[in-house]
Structures are given as structure tokens and as C-alpha cells.
Write a structure and sequence with these properties.
Rossmann fold; about 280 residues
Length: about 280
């Protein structure tokens, strides 16, 4: 692990592996720097890959009360300044940060974006957030995770047909099993649950903000899975229309977790070639 100090004094931890041009991978919700280790290993022959822990996770400091996307961009800026990296790959909520950063930080030459949950004319609902925040505040983590999964439409198809009490019980069993196997420093679902609030805040803050990306200076690769929720495809469709230097790739048969480790349903060996091709190609 390495560490850099962000503008407000918060420490941001990151892993690094490989050799070559610098590439930062920003993970999404309910993830940490470990969540894309297998993707980093696939790319390590071509790039020096940096895997930050976003705030509230692993080697990084906590969120502050005034946290917003500006802080996330500053955290990424600090990593770019320390490492000299010029490429960024953002996943889900991390993709929202990568998009905003690519608009504002000249250091970013190319940005790959995987399914940012950007709301387009209300396409992403956050109506479930008051309930989620109440359950987290009460320490009812299993209920909060069920609320978040249903609200974000991230569960398998059977998720919507099961009664809530059963989903809560299954979630409790899953967390108990994970807690038993966890080693020191592991970011378990129980530990990560409170960070969901800040991911949903990103969605709320960046709602209906597509017009700001019309002047995107960097080349952009849009990535998505064929089995992902419709609202994520809506965001990619809208971005494809307005970004000036853009290419898009869809992975048939894969979902929102395609870029992550295999134990979370990812297929990094399918995502890595597209990233390698994009970041290795000559600039426009």
C-alpha cells in the first residue's frame, strides 16, 4: 500500500502493480481497492496500475460531513500528481467521479467509463434513500443492504420475487459467513454498507448534469454490460450522444460487476483487452 494526502489533509491509500504508463482504477459502490485486483493483474503487463481505496475504505481516511464530488475529484487529483498517471478507468459511482475529473483535470488524457449511474430526466430514482439512511442509523445493516439493492436494481431477477423478510435473513447469513472468513483489513459488506450513502449522494449531486460533458477534452471509452439495468444503458446512450471524442463497447452476457474480481461475478479477462486497446491506441 502507498499513501497520498488529499487537499483537505485526508490520507488516501492505494495499491500499485505492473509497469508502463500509469492507469488509475476507481472502484464503485460496496467495493474497495481489492475489488479490481484481478483486472489490474490482467493489465499489469502493459500498465502500472494504481488501485485507490476511496474514502471510508481500507487504507483511506473517513468521509467528512461536507463530502461531495469535489472531494472525490481532489482525491484523484492527488493520486495523479504523485504517480504521474494519465489514464483513468472509473466503475459505477467511480465512473461519475472519473467523468467529472476528466472535465476538470488536464492531467487526464484518456478516461474509460463503466456504467455511471447518471440520472437522465429522472431515470435513476433515489426515493429509497430516506429508508436506507434510517436503517443504517439504527444499525440495521441487513435491512439497509436489501433496501439499497432493491433501490439500485442490483439483485438477480429472483430478488424481486422473494419476500423482504427472507431477503433480510439471507443477507444476514451472507454477512455472518463473510465476517467469519474475513482477515484483518478486509472490507466486508458490513463495513462497506455505510459508504453506500455517499455513493448515492454522488448520484443525487450529479443528477441531470449531462450538458456539462459536451466539452469533454479527453478521449472517452464507454463500457457496459448487456445484462445491466436499463437506467445504466440510458446514461450510456445519453453520454454517447454528447461526448465529442467517444467510443462505446458492450459486453454481451455480462452485468454491472463485469470488471470486478471473479468471486463477485466479474469477468476481468474480457474487460481488460478493451481497456488495453483503448489506452494503448494513439491519441486523437
Amino acid at each position: 500500500m502507498n499513501n497520498v494526502i488529499s487537499r483537505d489533509g485526508t490520507g488516501i491509500g492505494y495499491r500499485q502493480l505492473g509497469n508502463g504508463p500509469g492507469l488509475v482504477i476507481l472502484h464503485g459502490a460496496m467495493e474497495s481497492s481489492r475489488s479490481h485486483l484481478q483486472l489490474a493483474e490482467e493489465l499489469a503487463d502493459s500498465f502500472r496500475v494504481y488501485l485507490p481505496d476511496r474514502r471510508g475504505r481500507g487504507g483511506s481516511g473517513p468521509y467528512g460531513k461536507d463530502h461531495g464530488i469535489r472531494k472525490d475529484v481532489e482525491d484523484l487529483e492527488a493520486i495523479l500528481a504523485q504517480t504521474g498517471a494519465r489514464f483513468v478507468f472509473g466503475v459505477s459511482s467511480g465512473a461519475i467521479i472519473a467523468l467529472r475529473a476528466a472535465m476538470e483535470l488536464p492531467a487526464i488524457q484518456k478516461a474509460a467509463i463503466f456504467e455511471p449511474p447518471l440520472s437522465v430526466n429522472g431515470s435513476v430514482s433515489t426515493d429509497f434513500m430516506p429508508r436506507f439512511r434510517k436503517e443504517i442509523a439504527e444499525g440495521n445493516v441487513s435491512s439497509a443492504l436489501v433496501t439499497g439493492m432493491k433501490g439500485a436494481q442490483m439483485g438477480p431477477p429472483i430478488f424481486n420475487s422473494l419476500p423482504r423478510w427472507l431477503l433480510k435473513r439471507l443477507t444476514e447469513m451472507m454477512m455472518a459467513s463473510e465476517d467469519k472468513k474475513a482477515q484483518d483489513g478486509d472490507d466486508t459488506f458490513r463495513k462497506l454498507a455505510p459508504t453506500l450513502d455517499y455513493d448515492f449522494r454522488l448520484v443525487e449531486e450529479m443528477s441531470d448534469s449531462l450538458d456539462r460533458f459536451k466539452a469533454m477534452p479527453s478521449e472517452t471509452l464507454l463500457l457496459g454490460g448487456g445484462k445491466s439495468p436499463a437506467y445504466l444503458k440510458t446514461a450510456l446512450d445519453a453520454l454517447e450522444k454528447i461526448l465529442p471524442h467517444v467510443r462505446r463497447v458492450e459486453f454481451p452476457g455480462l452485468g454491472h460487476g463485469a470488471s470486478g474480481n471473479a468471486d463477485r461475478g466479474g469477468r476481468p479477462e474480457r474487460v481488460a483487452p478493451e481497456l488495453r486497446r483503448f489506452f494503448n491506441s494513439p491519441g486523437a
